[in-house]
Amino acid sequence: MKTYILNLPSALERRNFQAQQAERLGLDALFIDAQTPADIPDAFFQAHAFSWERPIKITEVACFMSHHQVWQKIADSLEPALVLEDDAILAHNTPALLQWLCQCEGVDHVSLETRRRQKLLGRRFQAPAGLNARLHPLLQDRTGAAAYVLWPSGARVLLAKFEQQGMGLADAFISSTYQLQSWQTVPAFAIQADVASAYGVACPIAPHSLIAREKVPSPP
User: pTM surpassing 0.85?
Assistant: First the structure.
């Protein structure tokens, strides 16, 4: 399974961490240059920034469009792919999970992460042999788009929703797309750097966020 890693060209510490993590886990990884505010034309920003539940920051627009370009690659392919933001920390047995997921049918999207907020899961589950983990239907999510597996069918659903409704925050956009056949790994196989300490995991990179530092824009 191919792994797409969204990374700002200027974020060298995170790129180095992800390169080392991919090599250690044996991932077939491809870095995708994440979009920056400089890549977003003002007319495009104005057309989308005020169409969601709250005004969307230009860094959030850039983040969404970074995911969007990966969705397009997956939609044009024949296989699922792992999508990572560059501060995602993966469990050591992630490769075995990915190998098993390649054989799954009737799935559009699998969330690998947790982020200190509860998720509503279905009671039924699938249990991959030898992984000491389960896969539950993901009925309601609240946050997190740093580590997920997306199938071509799921990518096409997300792209069609964007064409019809416009954008939102990347994680909220995915979790509110109820047409997706979404599942959740239990336990989670990924966390982001900014919540690593909350889960007792040593954080190998600086857990800062460009999005968190930017103010929400005011409508014109």
Answer: yes
Segment 18-44, tens digit of pLDDT: 999 999 999 999 999 999 999 999 999
Query: Cα–Cα distance between 37 and 62 in angstroms, integer?
Result: 6
Q: Which residues of 33-67 are buried (b: 16+ CB within 10 A; e: fewer)?
A: ebbbeeebeeeebeebbeebeeebbbbbbbbbbbb
Concatenating the DSSP letter of every residue in 147-197 gives EEEE-HHHHHHHHHHHHHH----HHHHHHT-TTS-EEEEES-SEEEGGGTG
**SS3 state at 19:** helix
Helix 152-165 to helix 58-75 angle, to the nearest 10 degrees? 140
Burial of 217 (0-12, 13-18, 19+ CB in 10 A): middle
Helix (H) / strand (E) containing 31: strand 28-33
Alpha helix (H) residue ranges in 31-126: 42-48, 58-75, 94-101
By DSSP bridging, strand 190-192 and strand 182-186 are unpaired
One-letter amino acid identity for 57?
K
Q: Which residues of the chain have pLDDT under 70?
A: 208-220
Tokens of 4: 């797409």
Fold of 2-213: Spore Coat Polysaccharide Biosynthesis Protein SpsA; Chain A (3.90.550)
Residue indicated by tokens 């920390």: 89
Round to whole Å and give the CA distance between 132 and 163: 39
Domain extents in the chain: 2-213
Q: Pick from 85, 102, 190: which is nearest to 151 by CA?
A: 102
